[in-house]
Amino acid sequence: MKIMVVDDDAVSRKVLEKKLTGIAECTAVESGKKAVSLFGKTLRDKAPFDLIILDILMPDMDGIQTLSRLRKIEKKLEIKKEDRVKIIMITASMRKKDIKKCILLGCNAYIAKPFKTLKIYEEFERLGFSIPKTVKEDQKDQKSYTDLVTKIIKRFNKGEIELPVLPHIVKEIRSLLMSDDPSVEELTQIVQKDAVISAKLISVANSTVYQGVDKATTLNAALVRIGMKETLSVITSVTSKNLFNSDNDDLKAILDKLWLHSLACASCCKFLAEAVEDESLESVFLMGIIHDIGKVLLLKAIADISPDESLNDEALQAAVQEVHTVFGAVLVKKWGFAPEYQQAAERHHWDAYPKDAKKELLIVHIANKLVSAIGFPSSCDPEETGSKETVKPEISPAILGPLNIETEHVQKICDKVSDAMLNLSEQF
Ligand SMILES: [Fe+2]
Ligand SMILES: [Fe+2]
Known about the structure:
The protein has 2 domains: 2-142, Rossmann fold; 229-427, Hypothetical protein af1432 (Orthogonal Bundle). A 5-stranded parallel sheet has the order 2-1-3-4-5, sandwiched between helices. The protein has helices at residues 10-20, 32-44, 63-76, 96-105, 117-126, 133-141, 146-157, 168-178, 184-191, 195-205, 219-226, 228-240, 249-276, 284-290, 293-305, 314-334, 339-347, 359-373, 397-400, 407-427; strands at 2-6, 25-29, 51-55, 86-91, 109-112. The protein is elongated, with a radius of gyration of 23 Å. It has 428 residues and is mainly alpha-helical. Helix 15 (293-305) packs across helix 16 (314-334). It is 58% helix and 6% strand. Bound molecules: fe (ii) ion (FE2) (2 copies). The site of one fe (ii) ion has 5 residues, from loops.
């Protein structure tokens, strides 16, 4: 059986390819455009695919548009209905409207993420493909966390999972910044009410990420150095540290690793923004901090709902990895962050971005990859297990290009992040 997997998310592609080994010859592509062109080529070469697994949410040409194009090609070539390729749609957010559209356009099945491998096999069989008995038996013995994650998603959608709240000071600063002509004095008044945050802010202002010529010794000097808008970003980051805390030792160990990953990502974002020389990029630090927040929320919910579960289990982490972006985006939205923050949480694993994608989004994508490769991998991500010596991050020129960053510069930025991380974690 010949299968094409179309998914912009590298992690999802890997997960699917793994699930399909042993039963099919699998080709994975990362965009609708590539899928359409490869599909046409295989038809011309008389070596068509038997089945296509198509993700709905993709940049540029999404899954629904791709589906429509594929069916049009078949119609044009007058391929008989029974000989047409079978198409299974797949997505993390199964909106009824989308499902209806897909059925109308001629998809053969749809599956919601995260899914059990057995579920995919069942669909294959329903569509007339046979799955070797041994492969199926093997799967039956494997523990799956799909049910648990699905339960959490349901509870979350019903509002039954308590969401962490942002501290009051963040809201106060936010409304000050939205007022007409806010002043540093007003900002100082709000921040100085909290001695711990004030002290941390001064220390961050003197860290390698913000360092100036002289030491900023007062709160006012620190605020001036960091800048009004960016102060909100830094304070939100400083206070977010609490979200990565837990009384459960196993969870704490995972969250500590995730915090270091997020902090490294945030500083890398900041250094990349400096390299781009665009002053409007003041929000990138916070984006780096929150990009994987969906994992924090999911892991906490799992530890809460199912306390006996081993959080280090590979299959459990894979399930978390699969849905953390959608989850993160919902949380960030509920917190009232601007849409670009939601995008950072939702789209940082994309492989390609639309031409008009915000620079911040590209920066978060690059930073996430770089810091994982230099020894600050995220938890739950089987792809992100780098160490300084072994992994050379691959950043596509299509993503680096719009930012005008040279490949040689990337190494320098990595070194800067490694240096900054030597003491940055103490400042937070
Ligand atoms: Fe992530
Ligand atoms: Fe990450």
